[in-house]
Amino acid sequence: MAPTNPPFDSRSLAKFCGVSRGTVDRALHGRGEVNAKTREKILKMAEKHGYRPNAVGQALVTGRTRTLGLVAFDLENSFFTEIISAAEKRAREKGYTLLIAFSQKSPDLERECIDFLAQKKVDGLALIPVTRGGAFSTRLTGIGFPVVSFGNRVSPKIPFVGIDEKKAMEEAVEFAFSHGYRSIQYYCPPMRHRGPVNLGAQELRLAGYRSAMKRLDLGARAIEDTASIGDFFRAARKEPGKASLLCSNDLYALEVLEAAARENLRPPEDFGLMGFDGLAFLKYVRPAMSTVRYPTHEAGSAMVDLLLRLIDGGHPIDQILRHEILGRRTMEMPASV
User: Fold this and answer.
1) Distance (Å, rounded) from C-alpha 280 to C-alpha 284?
2) Distances (CA, A) of 302 to 298, 307, 312
């Protein structure tokens, strides 16, 4: 029987290339600084010998599993789908696997998700938190690996990736005002759930709405009860084209659009309508929906980049991304008004 060749592992690859196993790891996964010629030599040798990293062996050598955890609410809102897709792509590009769990907006399930990912020895964790408070922040800072929050903040101790929510909504109000609307109401159903649940992003958007309305010397009205949307429709019917409704996300704007159609009302002829998030599916909506674009794909990539920086010992710096006001058909003031 012919002798069996020993497996070509990272030790063999390092020996053939005359470098350390750490250099091999950095070259194969694009982390840290490696001389360009050395990186090319390692990659060519790995390809020639069909080398594939062994996850268990790498973990023993580097102390890392090359996995990242992500906890989101659910997949019902494509806001999370877009962020998760971008994060998974970025993680894969960097040689990591993304493990995903869903809290279903439950603090208890969120705790289970975090425990599960901790048991899997992830190297870092990104989450949109349901829980709030000092105890939760303390738990995350002592968990043993870097943690990044997105969407909602946990505390200044936990690095954050997102946008300036308050400023974005202030600019949405100013956009409506600049288009001639003076009755500008705000539709924010999540605010019905005030209490121990983390509503950080929604609270900032509401604060931005109220701040801008005060600055413009306009009367603010936030609609938190879905049943009260009928009052807005009745007012819109009395004075077509005078009022506008800003929504705390795109899904609520679509619900308003559907409810308005049942009342034979249509933006912008009868009222102005604007969402928030700028999700990709809006390109199929007619009339074209005005919205505030949240850079979901940039956020997904930024979360992974920040986690990898923290894993490598970098400083925990918040990543505040740029939003964009997308003015489309639903906020055009009718010419007859």
Assistant:
1) 9
2) 6, 8, 15
Whole-model pTM: value is 0.81
Q: Which CATH architecture has domain 67-163+296-323?
A: 3-Layer(aba) Sandwich (3.40)
pLDDT digits (tens, 9 = 90+) for 22-34: 888 777 766 667 7
Strands 291-293 and 147-150 come out as unpaired
CB 73 within 8 A of CB 130: yes
CATH fold group of domain 165-294+325-331? Rossmann fold (3.40.50)
Contact between residue 319 and residue 306 where contact means Cβ atoms under 8 Å apart: yes
Greatest alpha-carbon pair distance for the chain in Å reads: 93
What is the identity of the amino acid at 118?
A: A
21: exposed, middle or buried (Cβ count in 10 Å: 0-12, 13-18, 19+)? middle
Residue range 10-62, CATH number: 1.10.260.40
Structure confidence by residue, pLDDT tens digits, 290-312? 999 999 999 999 999 999 999 99
DSSP 121: T
